[in-house]
Amino acid sequence: MREKTNGNYNGHPSYDAREDYSVENRNRSRKYSGMVGLANFNAIIGIVLFVGFFLNYLMVKFCSQYFVDINPVVLIITYFVVCIAGMIISRKSDNPWISFFGYLLVVVPVGVVLSICLQGQSSVSIQNAVLVTAGVTAIMVIASQIKPDIFLRLGRALFIALFAVIIIELLLMLFGVARPTFWDYLVALIFCGYIGYDWAEAQKGPHTADAAVDACVGLYLDIINLFLRILSISSRRDD
Fold it and tell me: If we measure between CA atoms, which residue out of 235, 225, 230 comes closest to residue 83?
């Protein structure tokens, strides 16, 4: 008969201890399953972002007329419901393909809104805004890669600033007040900071395919919002 001492049987780990150890190992392996190298991790981010932007391009080019006729109330409600559902699915899932589906649920309604917002904009203005957005995004990613700590410390300040922007813009819309000239520059600056912040957050986490897809949701929204603000600035100059 084996004698139990301090959770052990004759010096061997107890069954409870073994079970705890097994559970811990399973949780750890689940968290870090599908690890990829840093280069592959960043390549996945680039590919997934490209897919989203290319899908938006196709929607704007071929489907704009269908989206203009959508009831504005239905459009707004559907936009928020689908986008929020996509973000939740992407964040909660550990499967990169399910997370990618959630990412697409964000991309498609944003594409609908883009198709409507770009109506009446000249192709030259759109192209210039795309080029400027691409250049600024590249600069922020490089800066975040070199000095990630600076951007990570900005997380709370960026959140407060963006929350304040949303409240102020809602109030301006409610009372029919035009946005001041500097406003688009300020919001564009906030999203520049968010691009650097979200990139730094992605780089410090586990480098898995699922984490790469998850990071794309935030980066995609940052870049799209930056593009719209740059386009708005360009339109005001033209006017």
Answer: 225
Question: What's the token pair of residue 185?
Answer: 């520059």
Q: How many domains does the chain have?
A: 2
Reported as half-sphere exposure (CB side, CA atoms, 13 A), residue 104 has a value of: 10
What gap in Å lies between CA 84 and CA 102, rounded to an integer?
9
Separation CA 189–CA 96 (nearest Å)? 31
- Site of tokens 């697409």: 104
How far is residue 210 from each of residues 76, 88, 148, measured CA to CA in Å? 29, 14, 21
Mean pLDDT of 53-77: 90
Are 109 and 138 contained in the same domain? yes
- Domain match, 183 and 78 both: yes
N-to-C CA span, the chain: 92
Q: Which domain holds residue 4?
A: 1-31
Rg of the chain over Cα atoms, rounded to whole angstroms, equals 23
Sheet of 12-13: strand order equals 4-5, 8-9, 12-13
Q: Identify the DSSP state of 4.
A: E
Beta bridge partners, 128, equal: none
Closest CA to 114 of 160, 155, 60, 192: 60
Pairing relationship of beta strands 8-9 and 12-13 according to DSSP bridges: antiparallel
Among residues 140, 153, 80, the alpha carbon closest in space to that of 110 is found at 80
Residue 176: predicted pLDDT: 84
Collapse the DSSP code of 70 into the 3-class scheme (helix H, G, I; strand E, B; otherwise coil) and give the result: coil
Confidence of residue 33 (pLDDT cuts 50, 70, 90): low
pLDDT at 12 over 70: no
Q: Helices H, strands E: what count in the chain?
A: 9, 3
